[in-house]
Specification:
Order of helices and strands: EEEHEEEHHHEHEHEEH
Shape: globular
Distance between the termini: 36 Å
Low-confidence stretches: none
Strand order of the largest sheet: 6-7-8-3-9-10
Number of strands: 10
Largest sheet: 6 strands, mixed
Structural class: alpha/beta
Helix content: 25-40%
Strand content: 25-35%
CATH topology of the largest domain: Rossmann fold
Oligomer: single chain
Length: 282
């Protein structure tokens, strides 16, 4: 598999981001930039993992990335694809609620809607005709192994079916960005494989598709992601730990030669070991 790639337009820029509740800062000084990764002869998006120990602000960061939480300072920028390119640069805009799909740990679905009804409702702003919506949903149901449960309500779905429906619902209703908070938590090995396949399908279906997810499984993150950020409490010169989460380290698995591998190598395990040490020290 070719690992040659180019970095194109900026697809996500986070600048000086901080969030505080009632005077307590939860995350602070978050800065990072992700660009569209283009590989010759391939169409693929980006997969970004955010790792960190519990309570370090990952969920708060995710709610801010999706526009569900207003930052105390700083901003989150994504391309404004409704505006024309100017001087070779796509204008950017501040992220708003609805720009980024968000799948929480509970895989929240409409209790009173079937799988089919939920997906049809998710496409209400798509601009497609009803016939086009139906064709697209039927194809997705087939691709995601949900055809047999299309007329079932959430209460009758398995955990894996609920999760795939929640992911697909957000994919159909939002733009090219999707945030998943602990998507592998509590799943058995079969459902983990199913969600991994869903990641691959989303990743390969559009050049700008960008998945951002968190997990406590470091090996899984190193296997799936092409970019990893470790969130934690920084320490000062005297070794005293802070109380607000920030990015401690970024692992660009593309430049490290660890992205897009068909097998998990010793170099991957060394990366897992280093990330674990960074997390334990935070």
């Amino acid at each position: 598999m070719s690992k040659t790639y180019e970095q194109k337009q900026t697809i996500l820029q986070v600048e000086n981001l901080s969030v505080a509740y009632n005077g307590k800062t939860i995350i602070q000084d978050i800065n990072f930039t992700e660009r569209d990764t283009v590989r010759p002869g391939m169409q693929q998006g980006q997969i970004i993992a955010v790792l960190g120990r519990s309570g370090r602000g990952k969920s708060t960061l995710f709610r801010t990335l999706t526009g569900l939480e207003k930052p105390t300072t700083g901003q989150v920028l994504i391309p404004d694809l409704e505006k024309p390119v100017a001087n070779g640069i796509q204008p950017a805009k501040k992220v708003s609620e609805g720009d980024v799909g968000f799948v929480d740990q509970k895989y929240t679905l409409f209790r009173h809607k079937t799988v089919w009804q939920s997906l049809f409702f998710a496409m209400r702003r798509s601009g497609l005709t009803d016939i086009e919506k139906k064709e697209k949903i039927l194809q997705h149901l087939s691709d995601w192994g949900l055809t047999q449960c299309r007329d079932q309500y959430p209460v009758f779905l398995s955990g894996g079916q609920r999760q795939r429906t929640a992911i697909l619902e957000q994919l159909l209703s939002s733009g090219y960005y999707m945030v998943l908070d602990e998507p592998f938590s509590g799943l058995d090995i079969g459902n983990i494989q199913s969600v991994k396949k869903a990641f691959q399908w989303i990743n390969a279906s559009h050049e700008l598709h960008t998945i951002i997810f968190s997990t406590h499984d470091i090996e899984l993150a190193v296997e799936l992601a092409d970019s990893i950020y470790v969130l934690g409490y920084p320490k000062d010169a005297e070794g005293v730990s802070g109380t607000a989460g920030t990015i401690l380290k970024h692992y660009d698995l593309k430049s490290m030669g660890l992205a897009w591998n068909e097998s998990f190598t010793g170099d991957h395990l060394e990366c897992v070991k280093e990330i674990k040490e960074v997390m334990l020290a935070s």
